[in-house]
Amino acid sequence: MRRTPVVASRVLSEQLSADVWLKCENLQRTGSFKPRGAYLRISRLDDEQRSRGVVAASAGNHAQGVAWSATQLGIASRVYMPVGASIPKISATRSYGAEVILQGETVDEALTAAHAHAEESGAVLIHPFDHPDIVAGQATVGTEIIEQVPDVDAIVVPLGGGGLLAGIAAAAAVHRPDTRVIGVQAAGAAAWPGSLQAGEPTPVGTMDTMADGIAVARPGAVPFAHVSELVDDVVTVSEEAISTALLLMVERAKLVVEPAGAAAVAAVMSGQVDVSGRVCVVLSGGNIDPLLLTHVTTHGLSAAGRYLTVTATISDSPGGLMEFLALLRDLGASVVDVTHSRVAGSLRLGEVQVTVSAETRGPDHQSEVREALAQAGFLRS
Description:
This protein is an alpha/beta fold. It has helices spanning 10-16, 34-43, 47-52, 61-72, 87-95, 107-121, 132-148, 163-175, 192-198, 221-230, 239-253, 263-269, 290-303, 320-330, 363-375; strands at 6-8, 19-24, 54-57, 77-81, 99-102, 124-125, 154-158, 180-186, 233-237, 278-283, 307-315, 334-341, 351-359. The protein contains 15 helices and 13 strands. Helix 7 (132-148) crosses helix 8 (163-175). The longest helix has 17 residues, at 132-148. The model has no long low-confidence stretch (mean pLDDT 93).
């Protein structure tokens, strides 16, 4: 494994009046922390088990971790992935040497298929988080953090099935027990709060989040035992907070991070976590589809007040559009695109409806633009 860097984040430190560091697991082999646990788990198989090969299920990061680890150890691997998995993650998993089977609409359905294959063929199932070796492998992230930031007061970790959080919490408990460890879930796929309240892993009914890397319907039993005992808090973050955090990482930290990997950044930015003292935020992965990156970046710009869309009513006469655009220009809003409609129900004769997307400098600038457009008669209440 690579000993991934821990880098200081000046922008977050200034925003939060704290000492914030980023643990860059997005720079790990295969683009996430997953090979740590997968390699340890597979390396401990005996010769007879190795001869039968390994099987796994994943939407992408665990798939790549298993494929790479198995190939490094000279073992055959098969990975089941949902039919909707991103094309770059499917291609990468195949390039690392695994046989990829697309089956099911969700990771849970793919995992069912993986279990069936393991029973039929004798292949060893490499679970993405629910095994002691997986947790132990992920614990090396925590060991490195404590070595790299020896006086760390808190570690904030993205949370899905729980393997990474459980491992980091275990490492902290051994090496620096006073360090607070906090897990972060996407609000649209938050199985942990209910599970911790119930005292056992409890499935969540529905999931809806762009952070597919932490969209797990039911926590693992092995991680649950560690998390419930060793973790100080679990919080959730919105899709807007995740996209804003991802945008900040790309724009200011120059780091490409996937939505799941940005969840911990979202938590500290949105005030869900007390960041007093020295804080290390884990960037768990950077495997993001370029098309999704474009979509999330746009969403992040909008959430951060940097991207404004307004629908205005203008005169359907020569110079009407020019007058409207000139006002936006004078207000310092950079127009991205314009669409026209002459068939909206509220329009009067001689009017046209225009929807404009523009870049703005932030929420205050957006309010200024809206107010000026309203005063000029372009926006109707």
